[in-house]
Amino acid sequence: MGSKLSRGRSLAVAQRQSSLMRLHERIHTLLYLWIRFWIFATSLEKHEELVWRLVQQLKHSVYRTATEKHALFHHLVMTLVELWLRTLHAVLVPDVFTRYVCATFVLHIVYGLQSFVHQVLGNTCLKLTAEGRRTLRLRHQLENAKTFRERQSIAGELDKLEGKDKWREDPVSGLFLYERVMNKTQVYKKLKLKNEVIGLMFSLRAGLLRKHWGLGNPRLYSVSKVGTKHVIEEYLDTIVQSMNVVLRAKGTDEDNDELSIDNKLAFFSETRHAYGRSALMLSGGGAHGFYHAGVIKALVENNLLPIVIAGSSAGSILAGAIGVRNDDEVLGFLSGESVNLSFLGPNITEQDRAAYIPSFLPPIQMLLPKGGFKLVRDAFVLLNRFLDKRFLLDTKTLRDCLRSVMGDYTFREAYDRTGRIINVTVTPLNADDYPQLLNYLTAPNVIIWSASLASCAIPNVFRPVELLAKDEKGNIVPYYREGLKWSDGSVECDLPMERLSELFNVNHFIVSQVNIHYKIVSGHSAFGNEQTGSLMSFLKKQMKAYIKNIAVFGLKTSVLKFLGIGLIPLITQKYEGDITICPTDKVPATTLLRTVLSNPLRETFPDILLAGERACWPAVARIRTMCRVEFALERAVRYLRGEQAFEDERRSGRKAIGRVPSFYTSPSSMNLIELGSVAPWLAKLCLTTN
């Protein structure tokens, strides 16, 4: 009996062990298949082969002779190097990046040819009919319009001919939520008709967003050459009219407190803050920065110039010039009649000639024409000075020109005079530091022309410069006692969008882009076709992300230290905004390359100005739609601040002290006990900023 039980237990143990072994085999099989799957998925078969070869070599190394071991050592080293390179290849996948580069290059050529063929075939077909020939004639006139009014007149006629006017009249569209827009318009109209001011205030606070219901879709502004859908324009008209009703409302005995000046100022200030601000951003680009002047002129003439203006490198010249002038003065300045256009020049002094002219040059003076000898002499001076001091052009000519254009205004003085918030980007000479954005908040006492000079100091073209400021007595002194040097701001931060959003609540960026490398490195579509633009944008964004991540890895591991940190941001930074205007789009590339570091001639400046205007005119309708509510809120806030100051002066019998910062908003009626009181910190701020 005992032996049977013993045999039964042994059989049960054997069965359990057999089951465990089968389970282990299955687990091992699944684990092996899982590992093989990932080796296959990650293309690591070659790594597996190399590792197995290393194991075999190490396993049999004990049986080798000394000579064989010596050869084996070298073989092991080469195998390890190969393994390391293949691992690096698997992680960094340079072949994928190379395919992206090749695909982008090929697509640029193919799509360029496709666009050219499409244009030629389209024009050929249009020439076959009288209506088509009229369309071509109007398109030619549209491209060569001299004024915005002329352009709009031609565009309206062309829209009628092409049937785009019917598209504008039809509210139905898949590009935006037209039903909600129409319903909201009716809500505002009913409240306005009943004169329900409090209801209007509630609806406005709840429904004002810049790109609400798809109104920011760029395709809404690319169909018609005059404007967008009438239903959108009616919606914006109704919003502005509703805000005017609130602004003019006096209130009754029941709601007098809710419609007081302080309460309305709180309403409009907080609504403006929630809606956000627009900023005009002027890129760098050497002498091509003069094309910004046409964009600015077009915006000023249409009352669409934002309060916040940022400029980098050449863009800082125009930003500073308009920052110290009101609208009337800006138009006079941009006429070009009194503008000093001699910003760039070699500025070769007698000391330079004495130090850098080679000894063999004067004896051959008689062999060369007078003008030819001067060119050769100056070329040798510039070359030798560059080799000695590492700059091509001297800053004196640029400094004198900037000072004559901007005067000795500081950022705070310019803001107090014009209300414009001017921003200039500068880059510290120390490669480990970050670019800085100078404005009336971050650097109120810095002189604008000094900041612009630093922002224009292109590496190896101009020498780095110091920032200058005004002290308490108005004397011009160095801003940093440490003697810090600054250079071109567009190299690492052409468009300082994040910093502007932090400081001034900017969420809508209008970019005037004139950088010569913009179309090459930008992810923005250079083609009209949506699929084409999306594919090209995808490839370029993938390449920029790859370069940026590789740079972070390389710089941290000292692999790419020799490149510094300036080259990578130049390639990977963002060069486009919500609305991007490219004034140099139709200028030949050869012309751009030839004139990038040369002053514009007095006789060619009107053509440069007109090119900038023509580039901006197609975007005017979109800018007006995106900014109309914002500008109406800004006007309401400024009007109510004036009314509040007048009321305070009438009550107290003395004039209000100090200026009101741009970031000031009245205390909200929801958390203020006594509306007539002024916070102590605000009174102190007004006194200290006087």
Automatic annotation (TrEMBL):
Any GO BP: lipid catabolic process
Pfam families: DUF3336, Patatin
Active site, per annotation: 313 (nucleophile), 488 (proton acceptor)
Motif segment (GXGXXG): 284-289
An example Gene Ontology molecular-function term: triacylglycerol lipase activity
UniProt KW keywords: Hydrolase, Lipid degradation, Lipid metabolism
Domain PNPLA: 280-501
Extent of motif GXSXG: 311-315
UniProt key word Hydrolase: yes
InterPro entries per record: Acyl_Trfase/lysoPLipase, NTE, PNPLA_dom, Triacylglycerol_lipase_N
Name of this protein: PNPLA domain-containing protein
